[in-house]
Structures are given as structure tokens and as C-alpha cells.
Amino acid sequence: MTDENKQVEDNNMENMPEETEEQIVQQNDSATGDVSVEELQAQVKNMEEVAKKAQYDYVMLKRDFDTFQRRVEQEAKESKTTSLVAVMEKILPLINQLSYSVNNMPEELHENKWADGVKIVYENVMKSLNALGIQKIATIGEEPDSELHEPLGVEPTDDEKMKGKIIKEYEPGYMIQQGETTRVIKAAKVIVGQ
Q1: Residue 155 has pLDDT above 80, yes or no
Q2: Which class for 115: exposed (0-12), middle (13-18), buried (19 or more C-beta within 10 A)?
Q3: How far from chain centre, in Å, is Cα 43?
Q4: Which pLDDT belongs to residue 111?
Q5: Which domains does the chain have, with CATH numbers?
Q6: Average pLDDT, stretch 51-65?
Q7: Do residues 166 and 141 make contact, with C-beta atoms less than 8 angstroms apart?
Q8: Which end of the chain is more exposed for a tag (fewer CB within 10 A), N or C?
């Protein structure tokens, strides 16, 4: 910028009238449509209320979504368990027959390779059930539990420790354990010592 231009600009600045603070406020009022401080405060209060309501609505919506998500997850688990129980109820008689065959094998078949194969099949079936969370219900030596055991009767016993406890298992029972939930698929049929 040349000295001549700078001098012209300085002269223009000196010739401008000085605006008072009151004039600036009046100009701002005319630009905002003559809004008073009270009106601005009311607008701010209204906006704060709108923000609080929006925040409340967000919190409620998030809570409802979290509840919905937990319910869907729980229903999915229950559906899986219900399906597994339905399948197990159909195949448990077969597993029980296989168990009976293995446990009551004639003495002459104990060294038979085919009979050993049947034992291995039974063991693998039980391992697969355990992997699915299905467990055989403990019986012999346990106190009867009305949710786990179905007593078929009582028999005298000479063993004092076994009185009031299960001394025979007629048919095994099974339960499914998934997380904290335990569900009996079939109660064990037992005889209690007296």
C-alpha cells in the first residue's frame, strides 16, 4: 500500500462519526426485530425444556431398547432349550435301551469286539449329550429330590447310611444346564432305602 493510499484511508476513518453504545444496541435491536431481554430469556428457557424432554425421551428409548434386546436374547435361549428338550424326549428311550444293553451285557460278551464297539458308541453319545449341556441325574446314594427323582417305591436296606437315600435306579433321568438355568428333561425313576 502506498503512502498516499494510507493517508486517504486514515482521513476516511477520521471523518466517520463515532457510534455510541446506545446506537449499537439500537442497531442490534432493529436487526433482531426489537426482541427484549425477557423474550430472549423465555426463548432460552423454552429451548432448555425442549432439550430436557429430548434427553428424557432418549433415555427412555434406550432403556426400552435394552429391555427388548435382553428379552429377545432370553427368548432365543429358551427356544433353543425347548427345541433340545423336545428332541431329547424322543431319543431318550433309545439312549436308555442302549445304556441298559451296555450295563447288562452277558459275561461271555465282555471280550467281544462288537460289544466293545457298542460300549464306545454309548460313551460317545453321552459325551455328545454333555457337550450340549445335557447331564444324567445323579441317583445312587443321593437324597430323593422331587424335581429330579421319581420314587417308584421303598425297599429295606441293612446299610444305615443308605436309609432315606436312593439305593436303586430303574431308569436314568436327564437335565439340561444352560447358563444359570437348569431344566429337567426326564426325572430318574428310583427306589429309596428304608
Answers
A1: yes
A2: middle
A3: 45
A4: 86
A5: 74-193 (2.30.22.10)
A6: 95
A7: yes
A8: N
